[in-house]
Write a structure and sequence with these properties.
The protein is α+β, with helices and mostly antiparallel strands and 400 residues long. It has helices at residues 19-41, 46-57, 85-93, 102-107, 116-119, 122-126, 129-135, 171-209, 229-237, 253-267, 270-273, 300-304, 328-335, 339-351, 354-361, 365-379, 384-395; strands at 61-68, 73-81, 140-150, 154-163, 214-218, 224-227, 241-242, 249-250, 278-283, 289-296, 313-319. The strands form three sheets. Strands 6-5-11-10-9 form a five-stranded antiparallel sheet. It has a four-stranded antiparallel sheet with strand order 2-1-4-3, with helices on both faces. Helix 1 (19-41) runs antiparallel to helix 2 and helix 1 packs parallel to helix 8.
């Protein structure tokens, strides 16, 4: 094993290659940088990018991994080159606890390549358990790493393992690592953003697909930006809405013009439609009534939560009706209604006045009036019409 030089970072300029070699080197760097940023978009490409990193920096294997100096834990995210899965698993199950280099990796400056000698003399490292039982059996002689991101006790790192044919880390190795490490760090950060946004998009799609109401996002000319499963089913029926060439319209010509006007107005801002949106009545082929609640998305907060920045309005479409069987528990819990009060409330909404409610429930009108008076007090209403609106609001996807 070659003897170590001093333990500090080696910043000396490397030998300048000849013109032909320099051109080849520049092309190699450009190609590698392209592969690294491709991996940010497609994580499956990290293996190939890390293999090319090995070739450029000089080594037999490269990994993107994390370590925590406090908990003595870590994990590999991606690897490339001659990596032995058995030894990788063994390291994080057993030897990470004994690795004397961990603290140095965590404390290292971001983007700055370091090797074993920057943390401790080689002779001391050769006497450690991890060297004897994990490093030497794999034929490694050195390890160059660079911190990509770190917390108070942990770090995400790029590491390249070197065997005898590569020799110990020298100034040329450090120079080469410096050419690529900043790009790998940026690619990792970009990848995190993409991964987070992908997860948000998946959650968004799953959430809206779970709504019973047909939910659509459209742009200013009615083109569909996003539609959930219920919306696709409704459109497949061709009534009361259709989407020729991906552009949403109503089967009824008059309603179609109304929707078109609303979409155009929504593109001009919330004020044009009203921040709470509007309800557009729709009629199906069989005469069934539907309601499309149109909500503008052009304010800052709503626009940021939309399916995409092309969307100017969201539509929630469902058959007209109170759908009381699905509401009782929600309404009762919200207003702390007793079972008797809830029955009177729903009966009043469904069948009408006090006399009709008393007849439907088989109780006296005075009892209905007593319960109704309590319902008015608990819900903050004073008229039966207000109760109808309140229950309808709970059944609407857009609660007022």
């Amino acid at each position: 094993m070659p003897a170590t030089k001093d333990a500090g970072p080696h910043l000396a300029a490397r030998a300048v290659p000849d013109a032909e070699s320099l051109v080849t080197e520049v092309e190699q760097i450009q190609s590698l940088i392209g592969d690294v940023y491709d991996a940010a978009v497609d994580p499956a490409r990290w293996t190939g990018a890390l293999e090319k990193t090995c070739d450029f920096v000089g080594g037999s294997a490269a990994t993107l991994f994390s370590k925590d100096a406090s908990s003595k834990t870590g994990m590999v995210f991606y690897s490339g080159g001659d990596v032995d899965p058995h030894y990788t698993r063994l390291y994080f199950e057993k030897y990470v606890k004994y690795d004397p280099l961990t603290t140095g990796h965590v404390l290292a400056e971001i983007d700055q390549p370091i090797c074993t000698a920057d943390i401790m003399p080689y002779e001391e490292f050769y006497a450690t358990r991890i060297y004897k039982e994990w490093v030497k059996p794999q034929g490694y002689v050195d390890f160059v790493s660079a911190t990509l991101d770190k917390s108070a006790t942990g770090a995400a790192l790029l590491g390249v393992f070197r065997r005898e044919e590569h020799g110990l880390v020298d100034d040329d190795t450090r120079w080469r690592a410096r050419q690529i490490v900043p790009h790998i760090r940026r690619a990792v950060l970009i990848g995190r953003v993409i991964e987070r946004k992908t997860a948000e998009a998946a959650t968004f799609a799953d959430t809206f697909d779970g709504l019973s109401a047909a939910t659509l996002f459209v742009d200013a000319v009615g083109r569909i930006v996003h539609a959930n499963a219920s919306a696709h089913a409704l459109l497949a029926e061709g009534s009361p809405l259709r989407a020729p060439n991906g552009r949403l319209t109503a089967a009824d010509p008059t309603t179609a013009q109304t929707l078109s006007d609303v979409f155009t107005a929504a593109g001009d801002g919330d004020a044009a439609v009203g921040v709470k949106g509007i309800a557009v009545p729709l009629t199906g082929r069989d005469g069934e009534c539907y309601t499309a609640h149109v909500l503008p998305l052009t304010s800052g907060t709503r626009r940021g939560a939309g399916a995409s920045y092309a969307a100017v309005a969201a539509l929630f479409v469902r058959k007209a009706g109170i759908e009381a069987p699905s509401l009782p528990e929600t309404i009762a819990n919200h207003f702390n209604l007793t079972p008797s009060e809830l029955r009177v409330l729903l009966a009043v909404v469904e069948v009408g006045g006090v006399a009709e409610t008393a007849d439907a429930l088989g109780i006296g009108e005075s009892t209905v009036k007593t319960h109704l008076h309590r319902v008015f007090g608990k819900t903050g209403t004073s008229r039966q019409a207000d109760l109808v609106k309140l229950v309808a609001g709970f059944s609407s996807p857009l609660v007022n």
